[in-house]
Known about the structure:
62% of the residues lie in helices and 6% in strands. By secondary structure, it is mainly α.
Amino acid sequence: xxxxxxxxxxxxxxxxxxxxxxxxxxxxxxxxxxxxxxxxxxxxxxxxxxxxxxxxxxxxxxxxxxxxxxxxxxxxxxxxxxxxxxxxxxxxxxxxxxxxxxxxxxxxxxxxxxxxxxxxxxxxxxxxxxxxxxxxxxxxxxxxxxxxxxxxxxxxxxxxxxxxxxxxxxxxxxxxxxxxxxxxxxxxxxxxxxxxxxxxxxxxxxxxxxxxxxxxxxxxxxxxxxxxxxxxxxxxxxxxxxxxxxxxxxxxx
Length: 253
C-alpha cells in the first residue's frame, strides 16, 4: 500500500491527471453547434474516467487542497451544467456516465458550491435539464441529485452519525441492462442547496411544468410499488434467485 501511494498515487501523478483533465474540458467547451457531432466520444469518456479516478484513487482532502482545485471544480461544474441530458450526445453509454458522475459531483460541498457559483443562466439551465428530462431518462440519478439539494434542510434523515465521513459502495443502475456499476461514494453530512431549491420551485411554477413533474413522480411511485411487490413475491418463492434480483431491485429504486 505504501509503495502504491508513493509511486502510483503520487502528487505528481495527480498533477498530470488534473492537467490532462482541464485540457480536455477546455477542448470540449469550445466545440459548439454542428461541430459537436464530430467530436469523438472518447473525449467525454476520458473526462468522466479521469474525474472518477481523482475521486476514488486519491485522498479527498488532497484533491480539495490542490492549488488548481477551484479552477478544476469550476470547469467541471460548467461541463455538467452544459452536458447533463444534452440531446446532442447520441451515445446512451456516455449520457449514462455523465448522469452517474453528476450524482457524485453534487455529493461534496466544494463541488456543489462550484455549481452554485456558475452564472445564473447556467444554473437555470442545469436545473431545467434535470426536471425536464426526469421522465425521459434514468430518473434514479436525477432523484439522487434532487434529494441531495434538499436533504438536511427542513427534512429529517435517519442515518447514524457514524455513517458519514466514510466511503460506501453504492450500486448505480445503468440505462442499459447489465450496465449497473458500483461507485465508491464518500458519504458526508447533508449539505443542502437553497439556491437550487429556489430554481426548482421557479421552474415548476412556469406553465404546466409543475403538473407534469408531479404526474411523473406519482407514475414512478406506482411503478416502484408494483415492482417491489413482484420482487417480494419472487424472493419468497425462490430464495436461490435472490442474488439475481439485486440489479433489478437497484433499477426499481
